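Methods: example folding runs. The two proteins below were folded one after another, and each record is reproduced exactly as written to the output file, sequence line first and structure-token line second.
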Amino acid sequence: MVEVDGGSTIWRFDADFLESRWTCIWGRGCLGIEDEPAPELGRGCCSVGAELGDVHESRMIAALAATLKPERFQFHDEAQGGGIFRDEERNATRVIDRACIFLNRPGFEGGAGCALHLAAIDADESPMDWKPSVCWQLPIRVEWERRDERTEVATVRRWSRADWGEEGETMAWCCTEGDLAYVGEQRVIDSLGPEIEEIVSRPVYVTLRARLEE
């Protein structure tokens, strides 16, 4: 672990993961997270929909969803008719045909993949500004622990099968375990640099990079 003092937060980083060549292999052999491997379905980690962090995020996703065009959003009609949220609590996206409502399936003329992600690219903006935070953060996981009244400890590491709880015991998880996804051309600290920086702040990210180069 590499530790960086961020003042009120002490950041601890899984250096092995940050130095690894992990990369997302969605659409390139990702087995998905259902009980049976199903790379041909292209569902990736979208099978359970996206948990939303708070009311602000829910409102943001709703506003962005309203701008999506039918030619780039396979389930546009379903969203118009029944909404994009799982229920009235609006804390998760709706699941249609065993995957998130925003996931365009393989073969869709407007492009397979997250409709929010595709719309962000169309708008020449970062998908991080359009997608639920849980989506752009994966496979990064942050665990928080209170050290004392003034200080928290945040451990930044790779997401694991165990983090899914009992559900993870049977899923065809290949994202960070095994070797299928460790085929990237860059280290995680580089390929997921924007995501890590957004999570920890630029000063902490700059210090982290320097520490990894020591």
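Second run, written to the same file directly after the first:
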Amino acid sequence: MKVIIIGCGRVGAGLAKNMSLQGVDVVVIDMNPKAFEALGPTFKGRTITGIGFDQKVLADAGIEKADALAAVTASDEANLVAARTAKTIFRVPRVAARVYEPRKAKIYRRLGIQTISPVTLGIERLTAMLTYSQLNVERVIGAGQVGLVDVDITQRLDNKSKKDLEIPGEIEVVALTRNGKTFLPNSATVFHQGDLLHIMITSSGKDKLSKITGS
């Protein structure tokens, strides 16, 4: 797999190092050559100094054979141009961009570009911490009306099943992790201690789930 990362700040450098450790062929582009120092001596990928949305720079990075591209510079505009160039001109299969402004993130998505908004993620996480404080929240959806929570199966829930936990329209078990493997449980699946349930709940169902699980 070949991945191009535009921007070698904290996110770009961290992403590059993680993917390189996984054996991915990584190329990092940044205007500032000193930024590459953040990659450390163990980084095995390539680095290119230049403007991330310059087509010649992208060609030098091997974009025509790239499987994915991430634009994570400090500029929303630069990320948009780079992502659109990769998507529309070079037909890169998977393109993602970091966007600070949530409204811009919506525009990106309409253009078919996947986005990550630190502002939106921060708001969602803080909302989850404040409104679902007694539950292990993975994330919230919308303005906090729906949450995805993780629930450990303890002795209290041992040998229970979906029907013992679910409340239509408020609580729904969507997945189960057992011995490191995650799957979709059915009505006949029995939960055991050590299992981890992934549950979607509405804001009105969080107190009910807490009572059922003893959280």
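Comment on the second run: The CA atoms of residues 53 and 82 lie 4 Å apart.
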